């Protein structure tokens, strides 16, 4: 029997009490509010940042090579152990963490709970990583600055006592926990950064853990997490705690799911699977609301056993597109039902409303026509998606095929150097074959050390295309927003045959900007096909959340 949390779940506060935490939407991120963070950002910038430099081999494993959770615990102790002041839902997984966290956060907010949500990475401002309250939005710059000013002495002492080894992620995670304590949250939704067992967020004890979620297990950060899918599964299952329920997503291969279930057996933790035979979900159709697509889904959960869960939702309009996002919605729904079984007040109506209101920048995001016009791309359909793994490339390919089944397609791709570039390319080429592929470079976490050269990406994509029997025409480097002159016959099928035309492939001569999107639009406008008449087909920017951030930043500017 799983013990229930008293609701509300409260302790006396540690370091300080809260003032009102004003939050604002993403549209305010690039404005004057960021100037208030100057000293804080400078301080954080000198800390070791593995998002910028890359994670060391074995750092996420529960071994001698793994990150030292002891220093995180010592830092939190100096801050009054704020993470022990509220219950948390802890989420790990290769893909789907952020979307599942967003779905669940909105469900709980719809029910009226004061929710803290911590996720990573961010797109335009580090404030996006923390949201607090009943309405959401990034934490205000003033609240984050005041929090840092108050905690700085304890952080300085901790950095000195740890010989400077505290990292950017550890310090910011500690600050988020402190803010949640100050703001008296009813529950925190906490996304792990890397793996699980040795992640800085894995200081949550079973006495504070409401539930754990493991979304998927894939090959990202393979070296840092032990070198195999099995070692990655072991790392992620490290967030499972004694006697606390775990919701698993998947679908997983038999051996990977067994690793997770073995851990749950050892900790006597109930397992709720989003792939249980009692769980059914389906996308019935793709609709449009003010020209933006949504998927209409049915989600039915009928699970019996030690923790019976039940909900039946029809015609749920998800703004996040794709089968993978429907699965994330199922995981969030199962977790909400799990919390209901543990004594939380969560209605079916709140589950529906929370799912329908969830949207995340950079996840299968179609820009509005007004936004396309701001970029100088009137009439173009523009999709931005932070896909950067083989699995997310397949999900993106499926979205393109479902939402934009006709017309020419251009892909603009920039990636970090430590990704599976060939597998990523192969997945996107195996779906709706693009007419144009333009490779580029973008900064990763504010630096260029991890950026994959565009010329190297071009070689990889050319090889992947040839491996699938796709003939390419190299159009060379593109400078500015002028597309090179090419024979449009290359894009058309050979006369009298069903054989597709050549795929045009080229490189941006400068770091990624909207100029490359304009060049892609010109190339597509020259293509014959149904999409040409309606504004030049689909332009998809992908390969990295940093590519997405670049587009959003240019919109703000």
Automatic annotation (TrEMBL):
Organism superkingdom: Eukaryota
PROSITE patterns in alphabetical order: FOLYLPOLYGLU_SYNT_1 (PS01011), FOLYLPOLYGLU_SYNT_2 (PS01012)
Entry GO CC: cytoplasm
Residue ranges of every copy of the Mur ligase C-terminal domain listed in the record: 378-462
Molecular function via GO: ATP binding; dihydrofolate synthase activity; metal ion binding; tetrahydrofolylpolyglutamate synthase activity
InterPro entries assigned to the protein according to its UniProt record, in alphabetical order: Folylpolyglutamate_synth, Folylpolyglutamate_synth_CS, Mur-like_cat_sf, Mur_ligase_C, Mur_ligase_C_dom_sf, Mur_ligase_cen
Ranges for domain Mur ligase central: 91-335
A Pfam family matched in the record: Mur_ligase_C
GO BP term, example: folic acid-containing compound biosynthetic process
Record bears the keyword Metal-binding: yes
Keyword list, A-Z: ATP-binding, Ligase, Magnesium, Metal-binding, Nucleotide-binding
Family stated for the protein in its record: Belongs to the folylpolyglutamate synthase family.
Name listed for the protein in its UniProt record: Mur ligase central domain-containing protein
Gene that this sequence comes from: LOC123396063
């Amino acid at each position: 029997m799983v013990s229930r949390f008293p609701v509300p779940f409260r302790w006396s506060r540690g370091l300080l009490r809260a003032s009102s935490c004003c939050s604002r939407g993403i549209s305010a991120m690039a404005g004057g509010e960021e100037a208030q963070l100057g000293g804080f950002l400078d301080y954080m910038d000198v800390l070791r940042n593995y998002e910028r430099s890359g994670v060391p081999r074995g750092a996420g494993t529960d071994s001698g090579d793994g990150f030292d959770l002891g220093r995180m615990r010592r830092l939190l102790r100096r801050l009054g152990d704020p993470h022990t002041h509220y219950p948390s839902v802890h989420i790990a997984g290769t893909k789907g963490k952020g979307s599942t966290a967003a779905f669940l956060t909105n469900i709980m907010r719809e029910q009226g709970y004061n929710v803290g949500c911590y996720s990573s990475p961010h797109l335009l401002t580090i404030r996006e990583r923390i949201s607090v309250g009943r309405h959401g939005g990034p934490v205000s710059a003033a609240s984050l600055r005041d929090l840092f000013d108050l905690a700085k002495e304890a952080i300085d002492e901790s950095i000195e006592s740890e010989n400077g080894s505290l990292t950017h992620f550890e310090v910011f995670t500690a600050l988020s926990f402190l803010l949640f304590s100050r703001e008296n949250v009813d529950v925190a939704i906490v996304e792990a950064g890397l793996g699980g067992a040795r992640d800085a967020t894995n200081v949550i004890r079973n006495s504070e853990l409401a539930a754990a979620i493991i979304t998927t297990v894939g090959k990202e950060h393979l070296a840092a997490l032990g070198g195999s899918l099995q070692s990655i599964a072991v790392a992620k299952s490290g967030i499972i705690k004694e006697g606390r329920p775990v919701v698993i997503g998947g679908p997983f291969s038999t051996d990977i799911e067994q690793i997770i279930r073995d851990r749950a057996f050892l900790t006597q933790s109930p397992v709720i699977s989003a792939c249980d035979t009692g769980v059914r979900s389906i996308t019935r159709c793709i609709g449009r609301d003010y020209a933006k697509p949504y998927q209409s889904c049915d989600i039915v959960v009928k699970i019996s056993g030690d923790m019976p869960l039940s909900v039946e939702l029809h015609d749920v309009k998800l703004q996040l597109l794709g089968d993978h996002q429907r699965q994330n919605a199922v995981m969030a729904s199962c977790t909400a039902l799990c919390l209901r079984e543990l004594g939380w007040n969560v209605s079916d109506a709140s589950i529906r409303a929370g799912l329908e209101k969830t949207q995340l920048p950079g996840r299968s995001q179609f820009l509005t026509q007004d936004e396309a016009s701001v970029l100088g791309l009137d009439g173009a359909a523009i999709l931005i998606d932070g896909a950067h793994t083989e699995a997310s490339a397949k999900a993106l390919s499926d979205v393109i095929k479902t939402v934009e089944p006709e017309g020419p397609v251009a892909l603009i791709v920039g990636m970090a150097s430590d990704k599976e570039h060939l597998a990523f390319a192969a997945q996107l080429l195996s779906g709706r074959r693009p007419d144009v592929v333009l490779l580029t470079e973008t900064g990763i976490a504010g630096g260029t050390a991890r950026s994959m050269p565009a010329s190297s990406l071009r070689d990889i994509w050319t090889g992947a295309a040839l491996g699938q029997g796709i003939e390419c025409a190299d159009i060379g480097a593109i400078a500015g927003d002028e597309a090179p002159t090419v024979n449009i016959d290359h894009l058309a099928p050979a006369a009298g045959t069903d054989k597709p035309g050549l795929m045009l492939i080229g490189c941006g001569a400068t770091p990624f900007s909207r100029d490359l999107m304009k060049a892609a639009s010109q190339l597509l406008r020259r293509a014959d096909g149904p999409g040409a008449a309606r504004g030049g087909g689909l332009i998809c920017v992908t390969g990295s959340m940093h590519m997405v951030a670049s587009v959003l930043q240019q919109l703000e500017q």
